[in-house]
Amino acid sequence: MNDYIRSKFIVKMSKNSNQVAHISFVQKFTFGTKMLLVFVCFALLQSCLVKDAKPDKRQTVTVYTDFLSENDMKIFKQFKKTEKIKVYYKILPADSILEIIKLEKYNSQADLILLHGADKLLNGGKMNLFRPINPSEINPSIDGNYFSKNNFWCAISKSPIVMIYNKNLLKGDTIKFYNEINQPKWKGKITLQEHANSTIKVLGISMTNLKSKKHKNFLSHLYQQAQGNPKGNDLTQIKKINAVEAQLAFIELSSLVEAQQLKDTVNKKLYRNVEVIFPGQTQKGTFYNITGAGIYKYARNPENAQKLLQYLTSKKAQYSFASGRFEFPVLTDVKADPRLAQFGNFRGRFVANRLGNKVKKKS
Fold this sequence. Notes:
3 domains; 34% helix
């Protein structure tokens, strides 16, 4: 049997599978052939290991998000080219993304959590999902108000919460500020989104943060004034206003601009009678909702997550990131997309960073 080689190689084909390949053979070989066989088998094993190996974690970052635009994909590619860090992403349902991350805990692949809606970001803070960031390390040019109270996250782009009306029914100077809708004359004439909608939640948070007694119960009063059962999203409200099914609604301006991009004739009719009011222009300005991000508490690549957050808030990426969502950049020296600039100049403010940042419990 010295002239024969009996070999059995077991090669694990996948780290996440029990599948294996068995290679068995019996053959007579010369010494030279034996050495060649050993070399070939070693190379085969090495190739399998390299193929199945995960990318070096120091050269990757994983984003968990509820939405990505085409512009985001381009930004991620440019980030990889500039920083030599590949961006992976997972898009999850907006209404359950935080719970999913919480359940995954240490096993989560998340490094950076990117969300639309200050309400979701605030809830993420309550759930203790973020690690604190240093505003001066992210981008010192960003207004401090665009960071959460405990520096759990920061805004990357912003969208004003405006009021819309049908130009055939009302005039643009009908209402000056949000709380005027509590007047008896608006009873049953306001259409609202469903209770879970980010626009309405952030509006309520913003009014509460004004710390005035007359604004304390704004949201409950708003629902009392609304017609029927609140339902649908921002686009639903645009349709109702255009069809004269209601007289007033609250939406994010980004939703109207997005509707304006629809090319077909039917959809173009959805907004032709809709006009915009920017509440609060005689005060401190219209409220913003935001798209923002924070570094996951148990991130495997926190340094890379911070680099990506720095990149998203830099001049290089701000215009592209914001315009991909029909939103405004948070950097004041970056111009807005012309589709937003058409509405002219207005005063705006973000005050939804001061609620819900207390951590419930350590985990």
